[in-house]
Amino acid sequence: MSSATASGPLWYQDRGDALFALLKYTTIMFFTVMVLVPLISVVVVSFWSPPEFFGAGPHIIPQEPTLDAWVTAFTGFQDNLINSALIATGTTALALLICIPGAYVFGRQEFPGKEWGFRVIMVALLFPYILLIIPLTDTWYGLGLFNTIPGVILAYQVFVTPFAIWILRDFFEGLPANLEEAAQVFGCSQWQAFYKVILPLSLPAVMATGFLAFLVGWNDFLFSNMLTTGTGPRPAVVTLYLQTVGGESRYWGLVMAQALIVGTPPTVLYMIARRHLTQSFAV
User: Fold this and answer.
1) What's the CA gap between 211 and 219, in Å, rounded?
2) Which of 85, 106, 115, 209 lies at 20 to 30 Å from 68 by C-alpha?
3) What is the value of pTM for the model shown?
4) What's the CA angle centered on 30, arms 25 and 31, to 5 degrees?
5) What span, in angstroms and rounded, lies between the C-alpha atoms of 277 and 206?
6) What is the pLDDT of residues 183-228, one digit of tens each?
């Protein structure tokens, strides 16, 4: 009797653990398949020869593997990739230049209207950015910024700056209080306390914010499509889109190769910044 009583709860516990493990691994397997199957398809198709798209029937392994799509993608895509790199790097640098001191002030300094000022900045996150396209394009025409890389970089600050200040401000607030005063005891000025103590401690948040800003500058389609033309600094993501919708015939191997090339820099950056991203969003 005592043995049955003792084994009952244990049996239920083992069954519950087994069910939880089954659900966990099923979920992991489901999302892994969702991610890997399209990715593997893209990689495989990029090595197909053009005749395989129309007459070879359904298959996975390339029957006549070729690098033609990759060579064509690299040679014909270079200018667009350079434009994307300049826009993404400029967007990141300008965002950090603006947002690090701004977030520091909102996070660790006291001044009248601090909370209201922060809320006003956050309001920009509440509206769809497509509302800004027409007035922004008209303004950029007037200022001579339309169809220029600086114009696109400045336009991205409209929505990069609010979330960057949000992330960095929360991180600055989470640092121990009186760090600046402790640094000043050892002879640092307030500015030296900021860049010698606060800024190194905030490196994970700065890396995370820079990574997100780079993603916006590299991947955004709406602003880069509306603020550039075919004769200007058109970034890679717009060219990739036009490759998929323009013309009557499409070389899908080329499209897949271009898609993989466009996706590689953010992936590499993520692998580099992954540890810092985890630390930043764990605070």
Assistant:
1) 12
2) 85
3) 0.81
4) 105
5) 9
6) 888 888 888 888 888 999 988 889 889 999 999 999 999 899 889 9
